[in-house]
Design goal:
4 copies of one chain form a homotetramer.
Chain A (H helix, E strand, L loop, with lengths): L5 E2 L5 E3 L6 H14 L1 H10 L9 E5 L4 H12 L3 E5 L8 H10 L2 E3 L6 H12 L9 E4 L3 H19 L11 H16 L3 H8 L2 E4 L2 H12 L7 E3 L4 H4 L2 H18 L7 E5 L3 H12 L3 E5 L3 H9 L7 H4 L5 E4 L9 H5 L5 E5 L9 H5 L5 E6 L2 E5 L6 E5 L5 H4 L6 H20 L10 E3 L2 H10 L13 H7 L15
Cofactor (chains A, B, C, D): NAD(+)
Organism (chains A, B, C, D): Cinnamomum micranthum f. kanehirae
InterPro entries (chains A, B, C, D): Adenosylhomocyst_ase-like_sf, Adenosylhomocysteinase-like, Ado_hCys_hydrolase_NAD-bd, NAD(P)-bd_dom_sf, S-Ado-L-homoCys_hydrolase_CS
Amino acid sequence: MALSVEKTPTGREYKVKDMSQADFGRLELDLAEVEMPGLMACRAEFGPSQPFKGARISGSLHMTIQTAVLIETLTALGAEVRWCSCNIFSTQDHAAAAIARDSAAVFAWKGETLQEYWWCTERCLDWGPGGGPDLIVDDGGDATLLIHEGVKAEEEFEKTGKVPDPASTDNAEFQLVLALIRDGLKADPKRFHRMKERLVGVSEETTTGVKRLYQMEATGTLLFPAINVNDSVTKSKFDNLYGCRHSLPDGLMRATDVMIAGKVAVVCGYGDVGKGCASALKQAGARVIVTEIDPICALQALMEGIPVLTLEDVVAEADIFVTTTGNKDIIMVDHMLKMKNNAIVCNIGHFDNEIDMHGLETFPGVKRITIKPQTDRWVFPGTNSGIIVLAEGRLMNLGCATGHPSFVMSCSFTNQVIAQLELWNERATGKYEKKVYVLPKHLDEKVAALHLGKLGANLTKLKPAQAEYIGVPVEGPYKPAHYRY
Amino acid sequence: MALSVEKTPTGREYKVKDMSQADFGRLELDLAEVEMPGLMACRAEFGPSQPFKGARISGSLHMTIQTAVLIETLTALGAEVRWCSCNIFSTQDHAAAAIARDSAAVFAWKGETLQEYWWCTERCLDWGPGGGPDLIVDDGGDATLLIHEGVKAEEEFEKTGKVPDPASTDNAEFQLVLALIRDGLKADPKRFHRMKERLVGVSEETTTGVKRLYQMEATGTLLFPAINVNDSVTKSKFDNLYGCRHSLPDGLMRATDVMIAGKVAVVCGYGDVGKGCASALKQAGARVIVTEIDPICALQALMEGIPVLTLEDVVAEADIFVTTTGNKDIIMVDHMLKMKNNAIVCNIGHFDNEIDMHGLETFPGVKRITIKPQTDRWVFPGTNSGIIVLAEGRLMNLGCATGHPSFVMSCSFTNQVIAQLELWNERATGKYEKKVYVLPKHLDEKVAALHLGKLGANLTKLKPAQAEYIGVPVEGPYKPAHYRY
Amino acid sequence: MALSVEKTPTGREYKVKDMSQADFGRLELDLAEVEMPGLMACRAEFGPSQPFKGARISGSLHMTIQTAVLIETLTALGAEVRWCSCNIFSTQDHAAAAIARDSAAVFAWKGETLQEYWWCTERCLDWGPGGGPDLIVDDGGDATLLIHEGVKAEEEFEKTGKVPDPASTDNAEFQLVLALIRDGLKADPKRFHRMKERLVGVSEETTTGVKRLYQMEATGTLLFPAINVNDSVTKSKFDNLYGCRHSLPDGLMRATDVMIAGKVAVVCGYGDVGKGCASALKQAGARVIVTEIDPICALQALMEGIPVLTLEDVVAEADIFVTTTGNKDIIMVDHMLKMKNNAIVCNIGHFDNEIDMHGLETFPGVKRITIKPQTDRWVFPGTNSGIIVLAEGRLMNLGCATGHPSFVMSCSFTNQVIAQLELWNERATGKYEKKVYVLPKHLDEKVAALHLGKLGANLTKLKPAQAEYIGVPVEGPYKPAHYRY
Amino acid sequence: MALSVEKTPTGREYKVKDMSQADFGRLELDLAEVEMPGLMACRAEFGPSQPFKGARISGSLHMTIQTAVLIETLTALGAEVRWCSCNIFSTQDHAAAAIARDSAAVFAWKGETLQEYWWCTERCLDWGPGGGPDLIVDDGGDATLLIHEGVKAEEEFEKTGKVPDPASTDNAEFQLVLALIRDGLKADPKRFHRMKERLVGVSEETTTGVKRLYQMEATGTLLFPAINVNDSVTKSKFDNLYGCRHSLPDGLMRATDVMIAGKVAVVCGYGDVGKGCASALKQAGARVIVTEIDPICALQALMEGIPVLTLEDVVAEADIFVTTTGNKDIIMVDHMLKMKNNAIVCNIGHFDNEIDMHGLETFPGVKRITIKPQTDRWVFPGTNSGIIVLAEGRLMNLGCATGHPSFVMSCSFTNQVIAQLELWNERATGKYEKKVYVLPKHLDEKVAALHLGKLGANLTKLKPAQAEYIGVPVEGPYKPAHYRY
């Protein structure tokens, strides 16, 4: 692969699509800062003391305008930062350019190949001979995965001299990961070990990434402490829910201009993401149907007036299909064959394997007509009937629109900043073991509090007698850990 | 107090308002059974094996039609049952009559005095010389409180010969509790000890009651195991939320016939109950304002388009005030003085101390005009301006309407049945210590599953490969314990 | 029929259920006045000049608390008033008592037989030897019908000596009307003619009544001028829509306590009433389905996310059925036979013939179980399966609850007052012929304006240059006649 | 102005931005056809008989994908067509290219200057020496205006020899119109007269354009028959309402990516467009405030829970301002000076004079920062505070997004096709005078009916006895003319 790193006049590395978009990126960054009060409050509170002085942070997270404000919050607190995107379509090129020019090493562009994607991830983690990052900001866990797989391969290589064999897996993307590790192994059989040694910890953003971390914790294979940012209330109940409520219709409109009112829309999964999607579609005038495996979430849908059926029940009648499950094999090519002409199929869950893209792409005689980037009509052979697939089955809100809006990302990213600070400040105290932690509730409440002023809210103060009556401190936290909001 | 217990022809004790309403109660019970699939499924699954054979169950829980179906589910499973209401206004007299005639010992009527209320509670716990109940079904914790206070008094009496002094407290209701214990102490200084000895455990229904239990657990004073039914997802995220969404407007309409559309409504507290209330009012066309102490709940309100202000900000402009906090001293008489003429003030949280009824009742020169039972207009002296207080500050959905509808109570009460079964089945195994427990998630999911058929839902089955991919059993449970729904 | 008129100490006639409820009625009247700013503004504006001095007004309109405020507005403006209800179940007995005692001659009680109903209507129109009323306030057109049928019969009798023959019609209710006219004819063969001579005009409230009037206008048989109050925007787009949005769930809850969330509800008809009902049910968490004959209304439902199907499509799956059509034969007994057990069937359209009550009542072997007044379970033979019919197929919001709330009725009734004033003031000018008129738009806008202050609204004033730009007067009216709102 | 007409290989004239986008346009046209069942039904029903054979149609209407399907429906029915856009920002260049290449003469591109705009309008009307079009499809009335002003100028010139003087008006755009007429007058002093002679009629699409037509009818200056398509129910209650409900958030998101949830949004005007906008914003989680001059519309807003205030009341607190009035001078530069930093100001009403763009542009020291096309930040001098204006004050849904979606435009445009057919078919019968007409209700109902199948609806058939009962034909129309839906 003929990719080469470029350098700014000051010598910082980068690889972006078009550096001339940096000014445009900066204008949108300026607007976004006004919408991200949590991050700006972090700059005001912590900036003067430079707590990240000396810290190297690598981030693998959609390289959008909002992420750019996060990055510049980290650098404002003293960190050095390298960044890549965690999705081949999610980079906003003007954001990447502005950050590359002004603030951090960026390796990201909209429309990477998978091979380019992993090259970017490797660049992001590579801080040169001195090893890797001190801290990782992760989204979906790909940076964490690469290090864990790298360490595993180096151990095997040390013991047996064997290198990873891409042919050992069917998964095309994982083949690339193994090849990348294999190729690096020869040049430096200890670089992932050095990374592991240096690493203080990771903070992870998504349901999917967190699930991987808990699995590694359970099997004792987690190599460093992790903070589960996803399960901060101010993340999962805001970003996942209200973010998707905003960005799902945004993506649908930009990609297809289709009238949502009057249509039948199927939302696969009724977790936080599904709830946001179903709410948005319903309010836009669609008739929404939910599919669920979990009877509790199913009953929630029913209480909101949404029928719960199987995909098979409705596949031939629906106009729009959205996967939100975080699971795989939700909409298969056999389902697609039964859909109405021009049914829209998209994913806002996590990975593109929610939709059987492989089955579709390899269906004999299928014809792909690209309407515009990220909007493809697939026509089945012997018919004039086709379906419209968004963002090649990847996150449609990032592929077809610009992801979640700044305000809700400010909640998520303020959690990230606080988690990174916590890991860094406690790096020598032993407070965090090789386990997965959530942020304490008072920090979660603090994140929320930082976002109230912008919306003109006026909180009620608890009186001491009231605090005593319900058994909480006057200043919070106000709820038990198990409280569900 | 000249109350006397009556007896059915078969010798079962009771005290209800009007036994002639039993037929009417039975007709409504028949309707309710169709709406309570969870309870009916328990009867079908467990009835034949009579698991409660030999168990005495005392319940302190609103004596409504829905509770009647719960009671007859317990008796269908073999239990003997005694019952009282946990609120002076919440009994439905026809439900009480039907149960008293047909199924269990009931001591409850709509419009008890506080003194009568505690007499009923005492009757409910008194199984005669052989001690008390084996199990308690509690709502708000009054039955549990009485036993704990009783035991404490008996211990003090044994040690020091002192009896409780009602004058030691300002709380008028607690004075009655102390007097009741004091009076019983002379006759039988060990009856609460005998109750404690026999008791296998309690299952508790409400946020408020659960809070008391955790406080007792924390201070080591809890006398028997407790199952926190409130925090089953199928309870707190259904009954509290969807139940109140239904019963708040129901209570408002029956009590005042007021047009909700166009009005300004203040909801104090945005927990599950507050969320349900705010949703109902908003959908009926009110402009809703929320007051909150918790920044996270406040931010949730804002994301739904609901402003968050303090009561002081809006007290003079609003038309309807609803307390949902579970805390005390929310709306004080000073607030009431600033309200518009005919502002409606009501409570759907838990205790009547959310509203400063004492301050209102003792305000010099205030005049109370009873429009109809549970609907009073209070006119301040020197004005023609008054406010309308519902249910004397107690739960307005039970005082002014009929409480939550059967279907959602079926979720809550199926949890109760399962909790009671769990306590009883494990009574000899030592599984449950003197602590507070929640039901395991698979039982929570089972409760939900039992309610899907009635609503025509069709669940998707997880495929084994999918289950493995997300790391859950094919049959569930599907979510980690911390999942918030 | 052994009904006899009673008299107040001052000699005013009445027939109500229970005069002792007058105080309770007065308390609720006091509350309602605060919620009816339009009527109170009429009292303030017109009261001093006593414009109705000398006018006799007969009203046939649900004798509720709200109507009581209307009646006392008419009397405050100088009128003498006689009143009956226009529905056998819609009277609120405390309202009737308060008016009978304090303000006007009332003949109405909840639960009249049809025979009693027409007796009341006759009493209402009978002002003694001097003939009938000067003005009629009508709702559904029964008062107008009686006079038209009476005049027709008197003409026939004069010409041919024939009297009406009740056996000439199958319609049981119309048989009663003919019998009543026949019986009166013998005693006084000219009384309806005298009524007609005196009558200045009628103002009519409902879609159904208005339809009758236009039909009479078209055939040249209308005997006096009529003002169509129904089609004031501030009536049909408020009372019909927002009134029903409020009172449909109110009636359902009071009658059945059923949980609306999760249920499948069929709304037959998507006019203003149907729109209000569908909105209420949807917002309460039901899955709503609409049936329609009109493709435009159907497309409106679809744009709101509501499927449009036929009753046959969904009769076996739905839980709640509501008729709102103003047409007949909507839900037939054959439909009822296919419904689920305990399906709820009710009518909020206009007449009870929307539901095939005759077919149900005469179905061989059907069993009627009255749960409580206005709530009947009908069980079909050979099954344990039944349906629940509300208010015997008549208006369920008035039969099972208290009708529309005061605020929205203030809009409707202010139109009535203005229409009555218009007819009376122009009684000698010939402005109104024997035709049907709607109120001019500036009066419609005035009615709205009178209701804004209570809700804290602040209207924008049009600047002269803006008014000129859009070609309207600065003070309105602001819209062309065909504007649809 | 150095604009020159280009020609296709077949000699058809055009001027578009980029002919290479024609393939992309065709792909989107193919998708749109599936979403426009009314237009496709017209092709199927009327195509074979070629009713427009020989008719020249000129259209001035946003040159979008949806309009392209309209144009190709007109050509499929036999018409020859010339087209321009009615808004400088509303053209979709790929749609223009596809039509220019394949179907009709197009003069339109996104981002015309005003001078270019009127050049395009002139080109659209100019069919060569033989005069102008037979029929006009108008949106906003600019084509109609040009002809009326042209005829007026020619008459004046004939009488007095005077030519129009652009300096006679302050309105910059009207100066261009006068200059254009003046310049043409010298070359050919009768061309607008020839156009007038040939013209059979116009069908007009918008509230604004219709207002102009009624004013001309009232003053007797209307030169040819006009059909008011705007007031077809299937236009004004669908396109205006549901179209804006869709395209307002679409425009906001594409232009600013701002989170709508939690924001305060002011909607100026609560007509059909305002209702759609308010509904969309509310459902997205904004707190919506409406300003209104009309008390009836104001009361409607209040019934939906939306406060009605003046702009002055809220100008300093709101985040988003939307004008929907069709009037001028709604948001003045003095208002803008009081707004919060980065408040968003946009117009979806009709002309850009709803917002005081002139006042803003000429404010001393104001600085304009173009974030991206159609999204400008205006910073006031001496502050860092600015506001964000979309689409330079013009229609933001067309300037910043792609306008209304196909399905709802199919309703509007099917009315256009039917109106054009009606004018053309009756061109010799004298049925239409120089007046403004609306389509008869049965055609309105037909338009709706053509759109039901796509959404899976199943209409109920009226039975003859029912039709008779309510006095309508079995096949409709079902409602009186004054019915408001």
